[in-house]
């Protein structure tokens, strides 16, 4: 790996800036229990799109999300372009990020080549990598050409090297409920793999219901089992919304003490190796559902996030699958029509 000391220092400095900004986070209600949303649209969302998406569009999406108040954005991945062509060019995307002081940016890395490609970029706003494996061999083989045990062996030195470079390391376990190739998944397997990722230095492990078949009951059973080894503050929920259970599964997880959830603006995405699975639960739907509850995502602005969802859906000529995004759009259209009828001018502000 050829990384100059000057580059390392520069990267370290930018990371320190991010940490300082994070320390100043404040919440509007001191008693509220803050929820962290990891916005995965630019990675999990775009990796499944057909057609080539220009780097400028990907960077624009990231920059709009950061300006809308998303504090953690997964910006792309350094995986093999032969496996996931849509993520080719993540280095270029990173060079176009306009880093916002409160936002932390991460990327997915499958092996030491991915990490080497990431650390060769300087300066870089990326302060974190995500490594990923699965609860079943069948999925790990389909997604990363290796078994779970071999993937853990491959990832351990990647995690250690990343940490030595000052990068935080997050872990993912896919198929925590159902595997598209081998069926129902034993929660004890999820617990074992999660523990392995924590042992190798992941500060948090995101539990992926990749197929989106989970329900509040099955998610609870899985979390109860994983919770025997790993405390909830080290866990996150990553729930695909294929069966429309994403928000319900988040509320079930809140009861287990989980406070970090992955979500995707406009419900973008899916996993290329999970046929038929739709995108993550939409960020707009999560923000709307949490409104008025005793939980708060103080930093993200629903109106602004919804606008990003409308924009990216339009650019990609895809249907916005966020129920809340669609409802807000319909309301905006009705209000615009009403104003046109009355002969009024000016932009319509979406009211919630
Ligand atoms: C892991 C590998 C690389 C193994 O793939 P492999 O074919 O076994 O790797 P290899 O080491 O034999 O290399 C094959 C070729 O890929 C190249 N290569 C090798 N590594 C890299 C790299 N990092 N970046 C760029 N190129 C790379 C390497 O240089 C070589 O190129 P060639 O010599 O043939 O020209 C491959 O299987 C892979 O990239 N898989 C990633 C699949 C993926 O990205 N899936 C989606 C993300 S995971 C997900 O969505 C689930 C999640 C996280 O959201 C949670 C959930 O919902 O469950």
Describe this structure in words.
- α5 links the parallel β4 and β5.
- An 8-stranded parallel β-barrel has the order 2-3-4-5-6-9-10-11, surrounded by 7 helices.
- It is α/β, with parallel strands linked by helices and 352 residues long.
- The protein has 13 helices and 12 strands.
- 3-hydroxy-3-methylglutaryl-coenzyme A binds next to α5, α6 and β6.
The tally of beta strands, per DSSP, is 12
Order of H and E elements: HEEHHEHEHEHHEEEHEHEHEHEHH
| Helicity range | 40-55%
Rg over alpha carbons: 20 Å
Low-confidence parts lasting 5 or more residues at pLDDT below 50?
A: 1-31
The number of helices is 13
Average pLDDT for all residues: 89
Key words describing this protein structure:
alpha/beta; 13 helices; two-stranded parallel ribbon; 12 strands; 352 residues; binds 3-hydroxy-3-methylglutaryl-coenzyme A
In short:
It contains 13 helices and twelve strands. With 352 residues, the protein is α/β, with parallel strands linked by helices. An eight-stranded parallel β-barrel has the order 2-3-4-5-6-9-10-11, surrounded by seven helices. It has a two-stranded parallel sheet with strand order 1-12. A two-stranded antiparallel sheet has the order 7-8.
């Amino acid at each position: 790996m050829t990384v100059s000391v000057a580059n390392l220092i520069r990267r370290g400095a930018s990371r320190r800036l991010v940490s300082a900004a994070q320390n100043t986070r404040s919440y509007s209600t001191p008693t509220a229990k803050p929820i962290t949303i990891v916005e995965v649209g630019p990675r999990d969302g775009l990796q499944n799109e057909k057609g080539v998406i220009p780097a400028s569009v990907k960077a624009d999406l990231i920059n709009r999300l950061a300006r809308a108040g998303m504090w953690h954005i997964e910006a792309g991945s350094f995986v093999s372009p032969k496996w996931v062509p849509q993520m080719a060019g993540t280095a270029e995307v990173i060079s176009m990020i306009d880093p916002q002081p409160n936002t932390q940016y991460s990327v997915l890395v499958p092996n030491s080549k991915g990490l080497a490609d990431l650390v060769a970029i300087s300066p870089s706003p990326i302060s974190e990598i995500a490594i990923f494996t699965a609860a079943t061999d069948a999925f790990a083989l389909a997604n990363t050409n290796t078994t779970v045990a071999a993937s853990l062996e491959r990832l351990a030195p990647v995690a250690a090297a990343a940490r030595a470079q000052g990068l935080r390391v997050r872990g993912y376990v896919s198929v925590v409920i159902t595997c598209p190739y081998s069926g129902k998944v034993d929660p004890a397997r999820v617990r074992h793999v999660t523990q392995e990722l924590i042992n190798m230095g992941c500060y948090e492990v995101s539990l992926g219901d990749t197929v989106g078949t989970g329900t509040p009951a099955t998610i609870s059973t899985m979390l109860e089992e994983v919770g025997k080894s790993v405390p909830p503050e080290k866990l996150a929920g990553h729930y695909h919304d294929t069966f429309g259970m994403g928000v319900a599964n988040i509320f079930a997880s809140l009861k287990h003490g989980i406070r970090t959830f992955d979500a995707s603006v406009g419900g973008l995405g899916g996993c290329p190796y999970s046929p038929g699975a739709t995108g993550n639960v939409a960020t707009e739907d999560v923000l709307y559902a949490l409104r008025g509850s005793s939980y708060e995502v103080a930093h993200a602005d629903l109106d602004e996030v919804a606008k990003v969802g409308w924009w990216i859906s339009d650019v990609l000529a895809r249907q916005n699958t966020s129920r809340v995004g669609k409802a807000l759009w319909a309301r905006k259209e009705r209000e615009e029509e009403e104003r046109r009828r009355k002969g009024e001018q000016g932009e319509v502000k979406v009211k919630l």
